[in-house]
């Protein structure tokens, strides 16, 4: 159900969308990374992040505006969600730990929850939604750990697409031609294949219009 349950806050921002399952996976991933950096238990932090919104399979996701008017029995929803699985004690205990925020792992997982929101808001800001700035400021104020604040500061300084677009030589996007230094690196890695530039690929095996020429075999 979590992958069919939308995160409802985006309708107020006007852009962006995700479901609770996507959010939970990203929070678990970030929790693990943050815990490793902070010297906490990464497996425990990831577990807390993975299950932190499990109750929303029953209650749906209530955004900040909804929560002003609607109250849900979150604890009962958690119990019902895991009833009969044999995992009741482990998962409900983890969710209680997450809500109490007393352990380092719980504080990290909660900050990962906010970091996921911040990463998404930065993407919407980069794509032109100026309203995301106010949301970013509020989410930053909710961060409690130094490790999460450091990640947030670094993330906000770069465009969200830099990891895949800004760090690749422009010639790759024109002709899929890598710089010579990068070609040497790829050739040194076993199992990698160099993509030939279009100019090389057109020298053989193609007709005048760029169509592949297939030579028929004679039957013996």
Automatic annotation (TrEMBL):
Quaternary structure note: Homodimer.
- Every copy of the HD domain together lies at 20-118
Which GO MF term does the entry hold, naming one? 5'-deoxynucleotidase activity
> In which domain of life is the source organism classified?
Bacteria
Residues annotated as coiled-coil are: none
Instruction: Tell whether Glycoprotein is among the UniProt keywords.
Output: no
**Enzyme superclass (EC):** hydrolase
GO CC: one term? Answer: cytoplasm
Query: Which Pfam families does the record match to this protein?
Result: HD_3 (PF13023)
Query: What is the species listed in this Swiss-Prot or TrEMBL entry?
Result: Candidatus Desulfovibrio intestinipullorum
Biased composition regions of type Basic residues, renumbered to the chain:
204-220
Query: What does the record give as cofactor?
Result: Mn(2+); Co(2+)
**What is the name attached to this protein's record?**
5'-deoxynucleotidase
